[in-house]
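Lab meeting tomorrow. Look over both lines:
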Amino acid sequence: MSSPDFAAAALDAVVLEPAPINSDWILAGSPEARSVEVFRSADGAATCNVWDCTAGTFKWYFGVDETVHILQGEVEVTAQDGSVRVLKPGDVAFFASGTWATWRIDTYVRKLAYCRHSMPLLLAFSLRVVGKLMRMSGLSGAAPDSGLSGRKVA
């Protein structure tokens, strides 16, 4: 059930469509990827997607900020700086827009991906300043504390 303000989905029921990996990016094997967009924000700047892929090794370019949550399988990720991390079910990872990573999948991986188009830093700063000025002038009420501003883990 969904409305303009709320949406929900059963991830095991979504139907994934072929999402071929750029053949120039494939380093080994014949990985076959599939995906589906589950949700999109009203402004189109953020999406939630389910993606899976079979065995293979490939480079991947992140054109948007992407936070992944591994649902099944595992993947060995080599970041641009050479650091290597194996992501397994329950793990989350963040990939910044404009970066490359190498993904090595031995059998299969399925992820939930939260993608967000980043805005230029000057624009983001300007929006924060305008919001602060509006709250200080009483033109806009302060947003309630969501409790999500806890300590940083990574």
Q: What stands out?
A: The chain has a mean pLDDT of 88.
